[in-house]
Amino acid sequence: MSPSESHQFQAETQKLLNIIIHSIYTNKEIFLRELISNASDALDKIRFESSRGTDIADPEESLEIRISMDADKKLLTIADTGIGLSKDELISNLGTIAKSGTEEFIKQVAEEEENPDTIIGRFGVGFYSVFMVADEVRIKSRSARKDEPAVSWVSDGMGGYEVEDLDEEMKRGTVIDVQLKEDCQDYLDPERIKSIIKKHSNFISFPIYVEQEKVNTVPALWKESKFSISKEQYTEFYKFLTFDSDEPLETIHISVDAPVQFSSIMFIPKKSTFMFETFPSEYGLDLYVHRVLIERSNQDIIPQYLGFVKGMVDSEDLPLNLSRQNIQESALIRKINTTLTKQVLNHLEKLADNDAERYAQFWKEHGRIFKLGYTDFGNQEKFARLLRFNASIHEDQEGLTSLKEYTERMKTDQKEIYYISGTSRAEVLSNPHLEMLSGKGLEVLYLYEPIDEFVMQSIGKFEDYPLKAAEHVNPKDLEGFAAEEAVSEEEPLKKEEEKPFQDLLAKMKEILGDRVTEVRSSERLKSSPACLVNPEDGISLQMQKIMQAMNKDGSVPKQILEVNPQHSLNRNLLKVYQQDPDDAWVKKFTEQLFETTLLQAGYLADPHAMVARSFELMKDASNWYTEVKQL
Ligand code: ADP
Ligand code: MG
């Protein structure tokens, strides 16, 4: 037996150990993740050596990790049958720090005088993290190189360590005895160890046994070829990840090599998990580095508008000791995000092309969140192609069309795509601005959600066709389209009536005063007597309402009142006016007409005057009616 040799840790290592030993970092359980990932790396290496025919020690040993605990001795043991370490390797690999991440860690502690406990979790500190829980660590290892003897390494993590050749027989691999600190005895509980493994190391590709029981039972499906994976396997994996009892609507499995290597399995659930949220906060993909879970629901790898996607990403290009802050700043992570986004959008496009019904199912469940993508300018064209709308061609609110389909149905010479907003189809249908368009048989998209307005503003046009709110359509621009429905009740004004009608409009403006910017004759209305119009090119009414809600502004914006000269209500009013411009009924009627348009546009805050007037007018009408009927 050779004598034991004492070694000092390299100065950097000593600094690091000092920080770790004195740390009161609460998430100490990550030490196990580090030890298991080292064991897994060592097993990967031996698998590689044996696959290329190297003559290794104990070739019959199965590749596995075994964890056991001895409560009496307060000992936690992690053993692997991996590549093992020679004496020189123990000295160079565990005595010095070669990792840039660790150096960076020490630098930050020193330079920023930051409390190490706040940053210890941001850096995976590798093997040394075991000293957060250990008074002493004893390693026995036997290299896979046949001529190397078994060696031992012992340290309390203070100043140095002892190495010596072992005279006892040992098979290839490494056994790490962790002498647990007094306050870390909970790691003697097998259940606690199992739950830590399930949390961080569930997808390690070698079996991990805790006291004979195999803990990691779900295979890392994303590492396998997608052609070898059955639908049932994907479903099982989905249920494992999401706790959903249903199967997923869509499965996206990708492996990318450039510009950054990663694999990912993503799912689109059948049901949205964001019932009431406008902007989802609980979203993200689980981030793995080399099968080790780094962060659950990481939000840096996927944009919010794809927040309905559940799943995971595993990259070999990222370092295991990736801190929270590093993730956010990482260019690699950004590249993963960009690539993933494109892949998901491509998948949705393919789905839309191949199975419209299934796409509609996706849209009804997740479209509301997806629409947040109007801010993704880089993918705007794809995004626009994936949008769906209910429209005037549909029989009910269930129908959906794409912008592409809309353009294919457009009339010859139609140069714009029309839309109109309202909280429901019934509300949209009662909107007077619809009349002019539907009267000419022009298709109109119906928008039911506030976000739709932002989407339309942001994308601006589809292919070469501008998206236009119905209320901004200039009737002159539609003169080329023949009327398909004639719903006007009255003949157009006679030549001699035109001047008096203009006078009536002036009178109405006088009555309404500052409440409107203008009262004018309408060319857009067919069956409604009047409507409110925003000055052209201004924002749409719906948008104005959204802005007001955001600014808690309850005022009524000043608009133009348009009066339909071909409506019998207004023609009767004209008769009364021509007979006596100061007839009290002209004022009463004008007030009622205006307030009704306000009500219709959703701006009538206080209806009591209108209601009182309404009863009066009903009383008048009933008097006249009974008179006519001679009752
Ligand atoms: P990293 O794993 O990032 O290299 P660690 O501090 O976790 O850093 O480990 C340092 C080195 O110690 C590893 O690179 C490896 O060479 C060696 N090592 C640690 N654990 C084992 C093990 N179980 N078997 C073989 N080598 C190991
Ligand atoms: Mg490691």
Secondary-structure map with pairings?
Layout: E1 5-8, H1 11-21, H2 30-51, E2 65-70, E3 75-80, H3 87-95, H4 100-111, H5 116-120, E4 134-142, E5 151-155, E6 160-165, E7 173-180, H6 190-200, E8 208-210, E9 213-214, H7 231-242, E10 250-256, E11 262-268, E12 285-289, E13 292-298, E14 310-315, H8 324-329, H9 331-354, H10 356-370, H11 380-386, E15 390-391, H12 403-409, E16 417-421, H13 425-429, H14 433-439, E17 444-447, H15 450-459, E18 461-462, E19 465-469, H16 495-512, E20 516-521, E21 530-533, H17 541-550, E22 559-563, H18 568-579, H19 584-600, H20 608-628
Helix pairs in contact: 9-10, 9-11
The structure holds adenosine-5'-diphosphate and magnesium ion (MG).
The site of adenosine-5'-diphosphate (ADP) has 15 residues, from helix 2 and helix 3.
Tell me what you see in this structure.
The chain folds into 4 domains: 5-214, Histidine kinase-like ATPase, C-terminal domain (Heat Shock Protein 90, 2-Layer Sandwich); 221-359, Ribosomal Protein S5, domain 2 (2-Layer Sandwich), CATH 3.30.230; 387-487, Rossmann fold, CATH 3.40.50.11260; 492-534 and 548-631, Up-down Bundle (Four Helix Bundle (Hemerythrin (Met), subunit A)), CATH 1.20.120.790. The N and C termini lie far apart (127 Å). It is built from 20 helices and 22 strands. By secondary structure, the protein is of the alpha+beta class. Helices cover 38% and strands 18% of the residues. It has a 9-stranded mixed sheet with strand order 1-6-5-4-7-3-2-8-9, with helices on one face. A hairpin with a 4-residue loop joins strand 2 and strand 3. The protein binds adenosine-5'-diphosphate and magnesium ion. Residues 34, 38-39, 42, 80, 82-83, 85, 93-94, 99, 126-127, 174, 320 line the site of adenosine-5'-diphosphate.
